[in-house]
Every structure is written in C-alpha cells, then in structure tokens.
Amino acid sequence: MLSLWFLFLSGPILPRRNFIETTPSSLFIGNFFGGGGPSKQTNFNEVSSRKLGSSDIEVSGIALGTQRWVSDDFNAPNEEECFRLMDTAYEAGVRTIDTAEQYPIPSSPQNPEGKAEEVIGKWMKSRAIDRKSMTIISKITGATNISPRSIEKDLDGSLLRLGTDYLDVYMLHWPQRYQPQSNWGQSLQYRREGEYRRRCSFHELVATMDKMVKEGKLRGWGTCNDSAYGLTKMAVIADDLGAVGPCAFQGDYSLLDRKSDENGVLEACSPYNENIGFMGYNILAGGMLTGKYTNRNLSGGGLRGRMDTKGWGGTLYRYQSDAAKRAIDEYSKLAKENGMGLGELSVRWALQRSGVSTLLIGHSNVEQLKEQLAWTNKGAALTEDLLWDIDRVHMKHRNPIWSNENVPRDWFGTGLIGEPIP
User: What is the pLDDT of residue 2?
Assistant: First the structure.
C-alpha cells in the first residue's frame, strides 16, 4: 500500500497559473502530510522579496503594518516615528507597506481614518522614493460599503492620500457578505440569520477589480478575513470571465492562530490550486507573543501595551483566553530552551511556514523594528526538532483563541465584544 501511495504522489499533478515548481520533492511530501515550513532549509534571508502568488508583484518576507500609526493608542507612533520606521525598513530592504483607508485604528477627529495613508504618501514624497521600488497595499472597508461604485471611489481616495497613481494590491478589508469570522468573533458557526443583502455580487466584484487593473490603477487585488469559500469563488469566477483574479489573501496567523492551515484557506492558496499569496497579520498576537505580558503584574502600575488598555485592546481578548495563556507559557519555555525570546520564536516560525508569502508586523517604535530585523537576518532556520516541539504544543492547545472558559450562563449567546457565540 505504501508504494502505491507514493506512486500516487509522483503522478502528474499540474501546478496552476504558470507556477514553476522549485521545491525539492522531499519538502513537498513533508508539506503534503501537513508539515510546517521548509524544515530541510538551513539558511535564508527573510527580508528578501518573494512573489505574491501567481502575480509578478514582489513582497518582502516581513512588511510594515500600519493599523496603529498616528492613532489614539497611548503608545502609537506619531508621524515623526512613522517616518523613522519607514526609513529604517527601506534601508534594510523591507519595501512592503500594508495600510487601509480605515487606518488608523483607533481613530478620532484629531487622527481621522485615512491619516495613515497620508503619512505614507508624505514620506514617499519627502524622500523622493522611487515608486517602483515599493509594494504598497491598501484596503477598502468591507461589508455593505462594497459596491462597484464604492470600489472605484474609495480607491481614488486612497490613491490621492498616498500620492500615487496606482496601488500594488487593493484588498477587501473584510468580505462584501456575511462571514462569521470576518471580524474575528468567537463563533465558527454559520448563522443564516446573520446574512444581509449584498450591494456587490461576486461577479460584480471580480469585474470591477479587473477593470481597475486594466485601467492601470491596480497591479493586483485580494481579500482579507475571508474564508476558503470566498477566495475560491472569486478565483473561479475570474477564470470564467477571463478576468484578473485575486493574488493575495490576508488572515490572522500566529502560533496561537493556525486556523488558516486547517480550514482550507492555505489549501486554496496553494500553487497547485488557486496560487494566491498569503499575508499573515497579528503574528505576535497583539503583543502577547512578545513575552512582555508574561509577568501578570504591571511594573509600577504602568501600561505594558494596548492589551492593558480598556479600549481597542479589549477587542483582542481572544489572545488572552486561559487556553491561550497556557499555550504562551509552553511556547515561552521552548523559546528559552532554544536560546531565544518568545517574540523571536514566533516570528521565525511564521516566516518558515511554507504557505506564507509575507508577515505584516506593526511596531510602536524603531527599536522594535530593529530587533525583528535582527531576528530575521540570523540566517539559520529553526531546526526540525524545534518545529516538531512547537507542533506538539499546538496539538495540546489547538487554536486556543477559540476557547473561552468565562462565559456566564446569563450571557445568552453574546461574547465579550458583542459577537454571537458559540
């Protein structure tokens, strides 16, 4: 039986969309069985660029995430610090920036939505940056905001704020339809009563994005916080229409959140299926995987980060579940045993995952960025033994962000941030 199985594996499996197979067969077989990243690889430079799916768009192994830039968070980077972050990243070879028309979050009249894009535009202009040297990603606000007209209108607004005549990638911030995980709620259950009338069908969405590409306003497009169903539907319709299909997917991804490995998203993204680049965000789980929250007691009564705030940090409670904290403790021990910090382990693990194109990482200051650049430039991959130890912890605490041990009986199906549960 075993010989027949490997005969099947060696059969004529044809990659999709002009993908050129460069992966050694031993790695392919390991990944086929659900293994992690390129465990046989011994050296790499993760700042270097990678192709985004089947497109010719290049992204850095790590990218600048800008959700909190110039926001109302107590430790958010101001415009001057954002310039320093971009200067440092550019000099280090990180040429990918992810933003959105809705950033900063949290916003205010003093720091309105769209300001993060404006800051990026100011920096590119002041530094006379060669636009072709950068990969700029932005997003349109999701749900009922999405329509053919709003895609064109909102895109024009982003281009104006960024001071450019095209985007490399334009994404739906969340789907144009009801999808239970689109805003990271604690429910995996699809509730038909949650469905709403869409202002944009899948066909209209694909046709409008294709039009924007052909007009030269976009190089590529994609979706965030969606499902394997939504991603595949878009890709298949694009094929049927002869249109430009999605080249990118953004999703929550970390040691605490590996759902994309297991819910079909990374299967859909595979070069042998739709060949779409995967961009992971919240790699450090809102800061929980930096190790700074391991000490339960605040030092001198001060705030360690947004997780200690009652504002936006409260929406990230999924990373603070009892199950997540137990997993974090075990990952921390593994990191220490292997001579590194928890943050370094978390980032280097994610970079080695075979399905990941780039990691979108946010920073409060330049020192954090420099530290992460040092991690990614160490050259040596995590060992197979360490990757297996990480997987063993995962098997004990499988996607712990979905766990909640503190649901009172009188909540009647509502979670901490108002989301329906279970």
Answer: 41
> Which single residue is written with the structure tokens 């950068």?
134
Q: How far is CA 60 from CA 92, 136, 198, 377, in A?
A: 11, 11, 35, 13
Helix 228-241 × helix 202-214 angle, to 10° = 60
- Token readout for 69 is 């830039």
Alpha carbons 306 and 187: distance in angstroms, whole number: 24
Return the amino acid letter for 322: D
Rounded distance between C-alpha atoms, residue 351 and residue 358, angstroms:
7
DSSP 10: T
Query: How far apart, in whole angstroms, are the C-alpha atoms of residue 138 and residue 44?
Result: 28
C-alpha span between 139 and 123 (Å, rounded): 19
Find out whether the peptide bond into 38 is cis, omega within 30 degrees of 0: no
Pairing mode of beta strands 49-51, 58-60: antiparallel
pLDDT of 33: 32
Exposure on the CB side of residue 41, measured as CA atoms within 13 A: 23
| Spans in the chain with pLDDT lower than 70 | 1-47, 183-188, 295-303, 312
DSSP state of 136: E
Identify each DSSP E strand in 245-404 by its residue range. 248-252, 277-281, 358-362
